[in-house]
Amino acid sequence: MSAEVNAAGGSLMVAQITQLFPGMNASLGYVYDVAKDGKSFLVALPPDPSSNAQSISVVQNWTATLRK
Fold first, then answer.
1. Residues 6+ apart with CB under 8 A from 31
2. What is the full per-residue pLDDT of the chain (68 aa) written as tens digits?
3. Is the sign of the CA dihedral 28, 49, 35, 60 positive or negative?
4. DSSP conformational letter for 66
């Protein structure tokens, strides 16, 4: 969630509240991460069943397999 916060006379007033990632299921836990600079997010969303998108594989530590 994101909220617009205004400071007035020593108090804070919360204005507009916005859901950052619509469609996320909170019961799945944290399915996002924040970039080091704090300016962007990486979000894992469930695949759209109506999409023809292809899957991808992420291989970590792939250089170790070159030594075998």
1. 24, 43, 44, 45
2. 889 999 988 899 999 998 877 766 666 666 788 888 988 888 777 777 787 777 778 888 888 888 76
3. positive
4. H
Q: Which amino acid is at 65?
A: T
Other beta carbons within 10 angstroms of residue 32's beta carbon come to 13
- Rounded Cα distance, 48 and 32, in Å: 18
Residue boundaries of the structural domains of the chain: 1-47
What's the CA gap between 29 and 31, in Å, rounded?
6
